[in-house]
Amino acid sequence: MIETETLGVALGGRTILDGLNLRFGQGGITALVGPNGAGKSTLLHALAGLLRPARGRVTVEGLDMARAAPIDRAKAVALLTQSERVTARLTVADLVGFGRWPHHKGRPGAEDHRQVAEAMELFDLTALSGQLLDSLSGGQRQRAFTAMAYAQETPWMLLDEPLSALDPRYSRDLMERLQGLTRPGPGARSVIIVLHDLSAAARYADRVVALKGGRLVTSGPASLKLTGEMLSGLFGTGLAVETVRGRRLVAPV
């Protein structure tokens, strides 16, 4: 479980998050939603222990993230940020292999190679293992970065807008893969994901946390909390949640 207790975060003298009390239960997908500037990305960084709270604290399975050693944080959560960029001529296998660093610290062994191979197979990257990242499509590249986070072998994956700039095909593909790896069973992961695609949140999320102005608006099961009324108030514009062919979608009204 991840818990925040009266969490407050300030950056540059400005309060970004204020008094958040949250519990993220294991398993499934939790979508973070809210307008620009709501504090969603800041919350992810605080959960990963990369931002020290001005007030309160964050614990992951009882580990105080602000006080934990970097190696312990890296074994507790895997964070994929918006700023991930290809800065060198790396192959897909090279990139995914970076996820194993907290475990092997520069000396990869058989288990590390096995985990990398598993991650590439799960995200349909095996055939691309030797291909350079800058030769991939946007969707393939995003799968590679997500596979790197998966290879880190943490119970929790924190993903900041992984659907950004992806076309509908790749967005659906990535969400279905994430949904699959969070279902109950051996090795199941827990995913907390920032989404601006509200239909993706309605379709794939098990739980939702809605933020506005750094404060909590609501949290709970997506089937109950993700309503047209809530979203309209959250974003300040008319939105409706409709069911089309058995799938929930969000549309303007």
Give a description of the structure.
The strands form 3 sheets. Strands 6-7-8-3-9-10 form a 6-stranded mixed sheet, with helices on both faces. A 4-stranded antiparallel sheet has the order 2-1-4-5, covered by helices on one side. The protein starts with a strand and ends with a strand. The chain has helices at 40-47, 70-76, 92-98, 101-104, 110-122, 138-151, 168-181, 198-204, 222-225, 228-235, and strands at 2-11, 14-24, 29-33, 55-60, 63-64, 77-80, 156-160, 190-194, 207-212, 215-221, 239-244, 247-252. Strand 1 and strand 2 (14-24) form a beta hairpin. It contains 10 helices and 12 strands. The longest helix is centred in the middle third of the chain and has 14 residues, at 138-151.
Annotate the secondary structure layout.
Elements: E1 2-11, E2 14-24, E3 29-33, H1 40-47, E4 55-60, E5 63-64, H2 70-76, E6 77-80, H3 92-98, H4 101-104, H5 110-122, H6 138-151, E7 156-160, H7 168-181, E8 190-194, H8 198-204, E9 207-212, E10 215-221, H9 222-225, H10 228-235, E11 239-244, E12 247-252
Parallel strand pairs: 3-8, 3-9, 6-7, 7-8
Antiparallel strand pairs: 1-2, 1-4, 4-5, 9-10, 11-12
